[in-house]
Amino acid sequence: MCSISIAADGAFHGVERAVEPIRGARILLVEDNEINQRVASEMLRGAGFEVEWADNGPIAVERINERFAQGRPYDLVLMDMQMPVMDGVTVSRHIRQRYSAEQLPVVAMTAHAAADRERCMTAGMNGCVTKPIQPDALWHAL
Predict the structure, then answer these.
(1) Alpha-carbon span 26 to 73, nearest angstrom
(2) Which class is domain 24-141?
């Protein structure tokens, strides 16, 4: 795997170069853990993405619908699998009732990737990355 390396001029190297065409993409991070929110947000913002977050599933669904109504949808949703109120699979099923995988890609974030992968795909998610988030795995998913 390549390591993260961003030159002083902001240019990407290695795997990150493949992400360069989507820099500036709007990402909704759905994560209830404040530390995970901060780590993922910093990583994504450092790579040039716009990041907003939702603390739980119902808030995420509301924000997604608002953004579509405004004509400024998110480009991707990073979805925690284990959340109170509404888990990531349930949120993804709600999203897929209105938006296709092409309209709004959803990538799961889970500490139990092997067990959750099939559930994620069945719920209509586009991919899955494990926690703690490894930058190269995240760049590949994006």
Answers:
(1) 8
(2) alpha beta
